[in-house]
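task queued by scheduler; priority normal; single chain, no ligands, no partner chains; default sampling; output format set to structure tokens
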Amino acid sequence: MDTENPSVRPHAQSRVAANNHPNRRDPETGGGLIHDHTRHTTRFTVIGNHLTQHAELSLLAIGLACHIQSLPRGASADIKTLAARFPEGPTRIAAALRELEAHGYLRRERKRITGGRIVTRTISCNQPKPRRAHRADHAAQAPAAARPCPAPTPEPPTAHGTPLPKKRPARPLPAVPHPAYPAPTLLQTATDLLTGLRNADPRLLLSTRDTAHLTPGVAAWLERDVSPAAVRHALTSDLPPEGLRRPAALLAHRLAAQLPPPPPFRAPAPLSADRHPLQNCNSCDRAFRAPSSGHCRDCRSDLQEAA
């Protein structure tokens, strides 16, 4: 019983309580990290270890997230600005931003501002969205102010990594008046007038589809004895200085709302009472007006020359 069995494995030794981290080394006996901390009182940012020690994010994505969280509100955080700030270039920065979006640390939204311009708003989240398995429990336990940012809606990215805005269906153009007699010459004059509007204002460069829609409206104005110069003035005067997003819609509205009335009816001039009846020339049998029969003007000239 007192004989030792040399094949028995040695018992596991417990770690020292002060050095129980699996990756921690004793600075006195070997290498390892030593922190030389100085307490910050100004210009600092609190960042969670869930980001700085993230197991799936790349080092570039972690560093980029820390930089974005340190920026003040309203600062530019688009790909072009970040590429000008760091040496990685737009391709790598776009890939890192997509990593942060996939893990819930970043959202990018498109918003239309005053004037019709679309801008990209970057939303940085210091607390990512939890995994799908723990989403319901975490949302129920966390207070409203501390709930994580919702996960971004996956959208097809562009070449630079920015999601494309959702396209809205184009609104139809307002109806325009039509001429009573759409003669080809009248329609061609109206088309030429619309094509030349770009010379008055470059914003009035119309597409083929818009020109075909507006041509009957211009022809209706020309049919009412309005000169092309007057039509051009009515369409190009008092345009807004900026924000002309749908020039064809504005022109269609003006053609319909400012359509002039038809010209007054003009009775044809009555025939003169002293007009002579038609006579047949005695020489060439040509019809001409004269009080009595005889020779026409040409035949009278020939007779005079012969005499």
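post-processing summary
- Strands lie at 106-112, 118-124, 278-280, 287-289.
- The longest strand covers residues 106-112.
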